[in-house]
Amino acid sequence: MSDPSQKLYEKVASQILTQIQQGVLPLDKKIPSIRVFSRQLGVSLSTVIHAYQILESRNVLQSRPQSGYYVNAQAPLSDREPQKPQPPPNFSKIPIKKIDEGELPYVISAFADPENLNLSWGFPSHEIFPLAALKRALSAGFEKQGSGGQAYNFPPGNLPLRIQIARHYLECGLTLSPEEIYLTNGCLDSLYLALKVLTQPGDTIAVESPIFAAILYTIKGIKLKAVEIPLDPRQGMDLDALKKAIHRYKIKAVISVPNFNNPMGCLMPDANKKRLVEMLAEKDIPLIEDDVNGDLYLGENRPKPAKAFDKTGNVILCSSFTKSLAANLRVGWISGGKYHSKIVAYKFMIMVGGNPATEEGLANFLEEGNFKRHLRKLRKYLGEQLPHYTQAMAKYFPEGTRISLPAGGSNLWIEFPQKINTLKLHQEAWAQKVILWVGPLYSLHLKVQNCAILCFGHRWTEKRDRALKHLGDLAKKQLI
């Protein structure tokens, strides 16, 4: 049913988008001329021109000089983004009961079962990673380290790798010295260290929501309280809501993922990053920034981390190679600003350091330019896979389903119609060996019971097409 408030050119744009979603107008192919569409739809040439311009601004169409308009090969195929979740009235302790400790062995076994098709596993497919080049670099690292490769690596970690990480950030507008970078066992390890240094049990932090479930578990483990700050699908963390929370509660720290939040994939504009950093610096509230997806951008340029706008050392940057290179390497880093020396001391007391041979190998891998080449290939791969998933969801999922249009990362946030219970959907899909993580795992109180998470980082296959069709059929049954 069309929206009566829509202008005519918006209705025409929606009609064209529907034809793309249904495969009538294929990806990367030329669409009918403005004159042909004008005649077919019975509207003026100017109306069609305006509709084409709208779709071009949304990256659905692209204009090619002397040729016409084409469907973008990486076209986002939903014109209905998820709505911004509404914040809860109060904060509370972290009561994560969706998957409790007694159920964790069952969950782990589901991940390990090769018969299961995990649609929500938030890592790009291993087939795209440069395993041969990485193996050579790691072997060279072990050979160079010799017997030292079997020992612990003392703080702050391998110097050549810290130099390479500093150079990598320099290209996106963030200047760090190697001395400001401390190597860790992954991004979650970095987040844990920051929280342990900044907070005590019972303290209150602010966290954007929805957010990666493992971060919520980390908060729970430290026995903190949390204020959920809702995300806008395009702008990221709602800074006005954060400002109100700071005024109302004694916030000890803020966790944010400005670059491609997991699971929504939204990118915070630079102006908002600057405002966030300045707002917290004024109140002396540290910002813990998770930048693990920062290199997985689908646009032209790598976005700046919020730390690039930090003038007081108030931002703690956390990241790793987990999503961009290989999860099992367990190599991450933290740049703690004015809290850095405390973080290094705490890390040394509880965990010492990582594997020196692995860190040496990664330094070689980056220095030889392999990481840059891999990232270019990975971003192209992600951009190619995304339209397959959005097109299938537009085809199979119930009418009224909203799909995020991620600017990066590898996840899609799906908002089904309100009547659909995704916990039930999750259970029914699991029975058919299809794993789908759902909204309640990514938020404490927000009304996300009708939401789910899907990873588009795996190569599109007929098996995945059948799985999404099956999910759509299960969801539609709940509406009957």
Can you walk me through this structure?
- Helix content is 40%, strand content 14%.
- It is built from 15 helices and 17 strands.
- The strands form four sheets. Strands 3, 5, 6, 7, 8, 9, 10, 11 and 12 form a nine-stranded mixed sheet that branches. Strands 13-14-17-16 form a four-stranded antiparallel sheet, with helices on one face. Strands 1-2 form a two-stranded antiparallel ribbon.
- Helix 10 links the parallel strand 9 and strand 10.
- It starts with 7 loop residues before the first helix and ends with a helix.
Main sheet record? 9 strands, mixed
Ranges where pLDDT stays below 50 over 5 or more residues in a row are 1-5, 88-105
- Bin the helical content: 40-55%
Question: Whole-number radius of gyration?
Answer: 23 Å
How do the helices and strands line up, and which of them pair or pack?
Layout: H1 8-21, H2 34-41, H3 45-57, E1 61-64, E2 68-71, E3 92-93, H4 104-112, E4 117-118, H5 131-145, H6 159-170, E5 182-184, H7 187-198, E6 204-209, H8 213-221, E7 225-232, E8 236-237, H9 239-248, E9 251-256, H10 270-283, E10 287-290, E11 315-320, E12 332-335, H11 340-351, H12 356-367, H13 370-396, E13 402-403, E14 411-415, H14 422-431, E15 434-435, E16 437-438, E17 451-455, H15 462-477
Parallel strand pairs: 4-15, 6-7, 6-9, 9-10, 10-11
Antiparallel strand pairs: 1-2, 3-7, 5-12, 7-8, 11-12, 13-14, 14-17, 16-17
